[in-house]
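thread: overnight batch results

M.L. [08:02]
morning all. the overnight job finished for the chain we discussed friday. pasting input first so we're all looking at the same thing
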Amino acid sequence: MLFATPGFGGSAIELTKTNGKLDRIPAYSGADAVIVYGGTWRLCSREYYRGECFDFVPGRYENLGALAGRVRSAELVAVTGAPVAAPPPPAGAGRVVLYEYPNFRGQSFAINWTELPNLNRMGFSDRAASTRIEEGYWMFCTDPQFQGDCRTLGPGEYARLPGDVDRRIASVRRVNDVYGAASSSYRHLR
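M.L. [08:03]
and the structure it wrote out:
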């Protein structure tokens, strides 16, 4: 998981395979911190594993030092090493990870804050086909600013999104810890 700011803050992207050109991921704006959940990853300052490179084994790296803001490629070089437990979500925010394809495949986009009113700005509008929700209840809407058709989903893994929001999500917000406690001004499909 690559984080935009030191200390695991800002926007984040999750990598599950080697990527020689991170700048092609619309939501990627550079990395200042990383959590390696498993394997050994080589992060490099240039595309296709060139330039200054460092290997990272499972662990939490709050600051990438010489690579901070310069990571342009990531290569999975080994699959050994003890896995690292997932980090706790920021207080009150939880975490949602959207995936481009069913069954949690393809590019992913992690949401670490309580709302994202326009996924188009992050390059992930109308792309999500599966999701993992770590905690809380989240509203997914087909238009920016939480408009259009909206669906509320709770914690769990959704290998395939419901048809009304499959590849149609344009905005996301956390509504509450308990289903039905969301504001009545939003329309929820059940």
